[in-house]
Design a protein that fits this description.
The chain is α/β, with parallel strands linked by helices and 442 residues long. The chain contains 15 helices and 13 strands. The strands form 2 sheets. Strands 3-2-1-4-5-6-7-8 form an 8-stranded mixed beta sheet, with helices on both faces. A 5-stranded parallel beta sheet has the order 10-9-11-12-13, with helices on one face. Helix 8 runs parallel beside helix 11. The chain is elongated, with a radius of gyration of 24 Å. It binds nicotinamide-adenine-dinucleotide (NAD).
């Protein structure tokens, strides 16, 4: 295989389609390992940022982008005709849910159609976007084999081109792991496809884990995220049960975590957030229907996790009531808009849902987040809100402060001292050794 020798002698040119949270670090990894790399995106603003050496993702530094684009090692473009220049194409485009909680495959399909137009002999295509088992072989393969528009009828997989699925694993802002140090699962349509894809990822990833097919790789990613969704739902349910019994779930999880085997701690919170856990499990639910089987665990976990922001609001109403206040007309400050601590990503953040529910119940809501100065438009929400400064005077004005994201930058002692009432959904105060009778957990 010519591709194999090109990868081995580092003359292979790599293309990454979709330069978001997954694609940007991956394209930089290839460039920094000495591969000429082209990053493709439909969003011209991102292309301009990268060309200027500026990052649009908080945990990726300008300095690293600067190194990657040095000498044009990483080149970026919106011109997809340049796909013909590369030897391997890695797809990292979004796979969200539509308003009916069904897979929205438009980004993957549009990308695959574009690639089909330019596909040439000898190229390897790998899909990284999280998706249901079957996507690579049911959507991508037929498009590439029958790229009639480009006169490519009869293109044979494993011979004329290579196709694989390799899911992304990322834990934003986890200092212990980055793109290159997280083992990567790979499944090829044929043995040759697997060989090429494995070799490609071996260049930049610490360990690649081959599996028998793309659909086994697609299913692996779903298992990982379903496992988290279900375990988070379990602690969220126990949180509500134990609360009635006047037992603190955080104390119980901490104690259970001392068991040296057979237990992995998961923590409760105000609801699921991020691009993966609230979304990916439903890709399987949707696909399973085709096989006349229901994914009951997934649905149940979804129900419990979706309820969590409502639970926080109920607890807020109870607390205000105890202080002879109604939520209607109260001023509420939500701390944290990002879905997880110390990052600037607010996709699917439960804070956005909290804002919606509080607003609907008549509260006047503000938020504060050092990472998100202004709420950006999302698929679902379009709030015109700026982050409020956490001054003594500002805090005192709110009837209730809710800790939704436990950023390390928050001064929990200061917040406890200057707020009227606080609901803590993350155990942030206890974790920071701050004790106050104004703090309540939910
Ligand atoms: N962010 C994570 O932590 C993470 C982790 C694991 C897996 N994933 C999966 O990886 C995939 C990408 O996620 P992400 O977080 O990088 O998304 P993202 O929204 O940050 O980035 C996607 C990029 O693709 C671009 N894009 C959209 N349509 C395009 C097209 N037709 N051609 C070229 N570019 C296009 C967008 O402009 C955007 O820059 C998703 O399937 C996601 O589920 C994400």
């Amino acid at each position: 295989m010519e591709l194999v020798s090109k990868i081995n002698n580092k003359s292979a040119k790599i293309g990454v389609v979709g330069l978001g949270y997954v694609g940007l670090p991956l394209s930089m990894e290839f460039a920094l390992k000495g591969f000429n790399t082209i990053g493709f995106d439909v969003d011209n603003k991102k292309i301009e940022y990268i060309k200027k050496g500026e990052s649009y993702i908080k945990h990726i530094s300008n300095e690293k982008i600067g190194r990657a684009i040095q000498g044009n090692r990483l080149d970026v473009t919106t011109d997809f005709a340049r796909l013909t220049e590369v030897d391997a194409i890695i797809i990292c485009v979004p796979t969200p849910l539509n308003e009916h909680r069904e897979p929205d495959m438009t980004f993957v399909v549009n990308t695959a159609k574009t690639i089909a137009k330019y596909l040439r002999k000898g190229q390897l295509v790998t899909l990284e976007s999280t998706t249901y088992p079957g996507t690579t072989e049911e959507i991508l393969l037929p498009l590439f084999q029958n790229a009639e528009a480009a006169g490519k009828v009869g293109f044979e997989v494993g011979k004329d081109f290579y196709l694989a699925f390799s899911p992304e694993r990322e834990d934003p802002n986890n200092a212990e792991f980055s793109t290159s140090t997280i083992p990567k699962v790979v499944g090829g349509v044929t043995d040759k496809c697997l060989e090429a894809a494995k070799l490609l990822y071996d260049q930049v990833i610490v360990k690649t884990v081959p599996v028998s097919s793309p659909k086994a790789a697609e299913a692996t990613k779903l298992l990982e995220n379903i496992y988290r969704s279900i375990n988070i739902a379990l602690v969220n349910e126990l949180k509500m049960v134990f609360d009635r019994m006047d037992i603190d779930i955080w104390e119980v999880v901490r104690a259970a975590s001392t068991k040296p085997f057979g237990y992995t701690p998961f923590y409760p919170g105000p609801g699921l957030g991020g691009h993966c856990i609230p979304i990916d499990p439903f890709y399987l639910t949707w696909k399973a229907r085709e096989y006349e089987i229901n994914t009951k665990f997934i649905e149940l976990a979804g129900e419990i996790n979706t309820y969590q922001p409502y639970y926080v609001v109920e607890k807020s109403i109870e607390l205000l009531n105890k202080h002879k206040k109604s939520l209607n007309g109260s001023r509420v400050l939500i701390l944290g808009a990002a879905y997880k601590k110390n990052i600037d990503d607010m996709r699917e953040s439960p804070s956005l849902k909290l804002i919606e529910i509080f607003n609907k119940r008549g509260a006047k809501v503000d938020y504060s987040d050092p990472y998100i100065p202004k709420l950006q438009k999302t698929r679902k929400y379009d709030y015109e809100m700026d982050s409020v400064e956490l001054s003594k005077e500002n805090l005192a004005e709110y009837d209730l402060v809710i800790v939704s994201t436990d950023h390390s930058d928050f001064d929990y002692k200061f917040i406890a001292e200057n707020s009227q009432l606080v609901i803590d959904t993350r155990n942030a105060f206890e974790n920071n050794n701050v004790v106050s009778d104004r703090i309540f957990k939910a």
